Amino acid sequence: MSIKLHKIIHVCFLSIDTGGVSVFLMEGDSVTLHTDVKTTQQEKIRWHFNDTHIAQITGDLSFICTDVQCNEGTERFRDRLKLDHQTGSLTIMNITTTDSGLYQLMFNNSINGLQLFSVVVHGESCKSKSLSLHTNVKTNQQEKIRWYFNDVRIAQITGDQSNICTDVQCNEGTERFRDRLKLDNETGSLTIMNTREPDSGVYQLQINNSRFSILKGFSVTIISEYHLVMKMGSL
């Protein structure tokens, strides 16, 4: 019997758009806000986040500071900021949703040399997401529905509900999905809670009764990424 394979891509992401070009980053990656200049001995470059001083460098490198070195109250970026000594560009490491806001770049304390970076980090962790694989049928007393993940049985329900099991109840070795699987008693559809990348794989649905058998396959890919949106402007 041939299996019809349904492809499902489950994406949890944060988006980065710089000048109309999207770049995808994995969680914990770094992003750089570029000055597009080279520092000179006369220049002073200061970075602010939502009006809080977070980084500074002088052209002769006589004064350099980041996060708590610049402002004792700047715990948000502790050990996550890096300045390029040649350009003054600012790198934010281990990017997170709390890094959203307005970044200001100022040259020589002059408002005429002010550039703005509006950074919006959005999205939710895959761990808070659920994914449902639908049978598109209604169970009856004669039907038996079984779910497999990479050929290991992970869930089962009979039409009269005399036999219902999920994860370790079906197979003692199925620790991967412990307490994260839920069966719909009416349809036999399977919900995977708190999805994560190792849940990627082939899920097989087997429906049997006295008249027919149905076999379906679901190719599931879980992608966890950041998508950061940056807009730059100047005053």
Description:
- Pfam families: V-set (PF07686).
- It comes from Cyprinus carpio (Common carp).
- The chain is mainly beta and 235 residues long.
- 0% of the residues lie in helices and 47% in strands.
- It is built from no helices and 20 strands.
- The strands form 4 sheets. An 8-stranded mixed β-sheet has the order 3-2-20-11-10-5-6-7, with no helix packed on it.
- β2 and β3 form a beta hairpin.
- The N and C termini lie far apart (67 Å).
- About 5% of the residues have low confidence.
Defining traits:
235 residues
Summarize the structure.
This protein is an all-beta fold and 235 residues long. Helices cover 0% and strands 47% of the residues.
Structural class: mainly beta
Question: What is the end-to-end distance?
Answer: 67 Å
Could you say which overall geometry the principal axes of the C-alpha atoms support? rod-shaped
Poorly predicted runs? 14-24
Average pLDDT rating: 77
User: Which sheet architecture does the biggest sheet show?
Assistant: 8 strands, mixed
Per DSSP, what share of the residues sits in E-state strands of 2 or more residues?
over 45%
Protein name: Immunoglobulin V-set domain-containing protein
InterPro entries: Ig-like_dom_sf, Ig-like_fold, Ig_V-set
Organism: Cyprinus carpio (Common carp)
Domain Immunoglobulin V-set: 23-112, 133-221
